[in-house]
Design goal:
single chain; 204 residues; mainly beta; Porin; 8-stranded antiparallel β-barrel; 1 helix; 8 strands; 11% helix; 55% strand; elongated
Length: 204
């Protein structure tokens, strides 16, 4: 019996350790999403153009410029995103452009637009691991457009926009990059525009 005591003691000590190891083995490993979705923050920017800037008289010259936008929103699954944005743009119009000032002011103008946006993912392409990292989407929204200088363009307008894009979800999980082409329309002044905007997105 004395010879068996060390074996019994070792077995008694080993049982709790084996039980703990089994319990640990039974627990599922932490599963990380290959693509994070939920609350997101994105920045967009690039060249923007207004074909016929707002004007009550005089020429409405093609106005090239730059735009930048920040957006905060929420993903609802992998197909739909809703958000709020603030966009700023500057456009060169030349001295012949007098806008709505009746000749009292002329030249370039800038635009500030807060608003709401929706994005719908249409088609996703899977990579070698069967993860849909590349998506083709349509993004559209509307906002309240305010112009500067006020003497040149004193009246605000409603901006609506829509366009296609492509987005790639990187292997960093939280980050995605993309580019889109957007057509825009100022409702009151009947002005058309478009923009090419690369973008960077971070999902929490």
């Amino acid at each position: 019996m004395k010879a068996l005591r060390p074996v019994v003691i070792c077995a008694a000590l080993a049982v709790p350790a084996l039980a703990h190891a089994q319990a640990a083995g039974d627990r599922p490993a932490d599963n990380y999403e290959e693509i994070e979705r939920g609350l997101y923050f994105s920045v967009l920017g690039g060249p923007s153009f207004v074909v016929n800037p707002p004007a009550t008289s005089g020429p409405r010259p093609f106005a090239a410029g730059q735009m930048a936008s920040v957006e905060v929103g929420v993903d609802f699954g992998e197909r739909l995103s809703l958000g709020l944005f603030v966009m700023g743009a500057t456009n060169r119009a030349g001295s012949e452009y007098t806008g709505n000032s009746d000749g009292a002011a002329s030249g370039d103008f800038s635009t500030l637009v807060p608003g709401a946006v929706a994005r719908v993912h249409l088609v996703g392409l899977a990579d070698a691991q069967e993860v849909k990292r590349t998506w083709f989407y349509v993004r559209g929204g509307a906002g309240y457009a305010m112009f500067a200088p006020k003497q040149l363009l004193p009246d605000s307008d409603i901006l609506v926009f829509l366009g296609p894009g492509v987005e790639y979800y990187t292997r960093l999980r939280h980050f995605s990059i993309g580019v889109e082409v957007t057509g825009s329309f100022l409702v009151k002044s009947q002005s058309f525009g478009f923009a090419l905007t690369p973008n960077l997105r971070y999902a929490f």
